[in-house]
UniProtKB/TrEMBL annotation:
Transmembrane segments: none annotated. Keywords: FAD, Flavoprotein, NAD, Oxidoreductase. InterPro entries: FAD-oxidoreductase/Apoptosis (IPR050446), FAD/NAD-bd_sf (IPR036188), FAD/NAD-binding_dom (IPR023753), FAD/NAD-linked_Rdtase_dimer_sf (IPR016156), MDHAR3-like_C (IPR048618). GO terms for molecular function: monodehydroascorbate reductase (NADH) activity. Its EC number is 1.6.5.4. This is monodehydroascorbate reductase (NADH). It comes from Chlorella sorokiniana (Freshwater green alga). It comes from the Eukaryota. Its cofactor is FAD.
Amino acid sequence: MAKQYKHVVLGGGNAAGYFAREWVARNGAKGELAIIGDEPYVSYERPALSKAYLFPEAPARLPGFHSCVGGGGERQLPEFYAQHGIDYLTNTKVTAVDVATKQLTTASGDSITYDKLVVATGARPSTLVDFKTPGADLKGVHYLRNVADADALIAAIADCKAAGGKAVAIGGGYIGLECAAALALNGLDVTMVFPEDRFMARLFTPDIAAFYEQFYAGKGIKIVKGDVVSSLEGADGKVTAAVLKGGAKLEANLVLVGVGARPNTELFAGQLELLAGPPGGIKTDEHLRTSNPDVYAIGDVAAFPLKLTGVTTRQEHVTCCRQTAAHAAAELLGESKPFDYQPFFYSRVFNLSWQFYGLSEGEVVQFGDVSAGKFGAFWVQGGKVVGAFLESGSPEENAAIKKVAQAQPAAPADLAQQGLAFALAA
Ligand code: FAD
Ligand code: NAD
């Protein structure tokens, strides 16, 4: 017989934990909720995996970073869910969904029915197999999305050290930057390769990127820009080298790939309205409701209208996953209002830490002293400050740039000279 639940969250990842937090805050121990995920753990803070989890000294491990510790909440262990009447089905992969009959089928053939479904299936790494790169399936080629990947990467770091210590990190985005730093901290000889002309090209200006690139070079990390890996070579099934399109060959005992992520939407193809990709995702309205009124989408998989711009957007970032989760829980429990999200991106590598709030659109006005490592930038569009970036901000300074990006004040002519003082005074 099918298991029946009033509410089901499909995908037991980061967003699911925050959904449960809000659910419990509003609904107490009434339960009426199941969370179904294919990982062996209840929800955890995924950002820890590319940072403290990989530290050579005192690394983070579960249960230390279960949700919602990253968002200032309780560390929700399996008991938390049980105590509040929430059935958390771990190790349970859903292989089919029928939104017409409101039924899920699991890999073991069980059926689960729901009244309301919240899709939180997240995203998965794009792979070199997707790119049809020869040698993509060699041992020693790694991705990072979950604890199993992180454990495999840690074992690979040890193997790499024993084999010669040469690592290649592919990608100049979040994973490439954070993992290259972690691999270097582990004593590996790291070379980064990416097709753009600078680090984090979608956000960083050339000057901002140059600061981080020099910092990485100072840590011994080599950087190959404007090139891609055309094939991987191996011996005895293990990777030994990365061959670049430009002709260079890099010795590699470990290859870490961070070439973007794809939303897990396949279960809903032909059933829910999807956003043509990239970025792809399950389209929602301003209440995070999909094209089926009994199905909501949250976290990395949700493509929702950003109130600021009216444009349907998908954000692969943890603050968005936390806020979409809390919002959908409130909607399902009767509090309906448009979801209003301020884009927020951040990263921490070595002893550096940056934050960005708002929109990276328009003209960039930089401020501060790049050589001293304390600098930032405002994005100005239509005469208004719409985005703000800051490296090494104090909590007060970060709060100030957040506020200014939200308020969108008129940009004064001497914005560059005023710099951070403008945000602090706004
Ligand atoms: P996920 O957390 O990916 O959860 C989705 C879950 O659904 C997974 O457990 C998946 O296995 C499961 N699932 C999928 N399909 C099925 C199925 N058919 N059946 C059952 N289960 C299924 N963001 C930041 O803002 N700052 C950071 O510093 C940061 N660091 C990150 C570091 C790493 C290594 C990664 C991978 C991401 C990082 N992010 C960061 C992004 C952030 O972690 C994501 O935005 C967040 O995890 C999204 O939550 P989610 O629940 O939507 O997806
Ligand atoms: P990303 O989108 O940040 O970066 C992808 C990078 O792939 C691009 O910058 C580009 O350099 C590279 N690339 C694309 N095609 C390539 C090719 N053919 N060869 C070599 N490089 C190529 O994605 P990611 O870094 O893989 O991160 C994956 C997911 O994890 C994203 O959802 C990201 O938001 C999330 N994440 C976020 C953080 C954070 O917010 N601090 C940290 C880690 C991971």
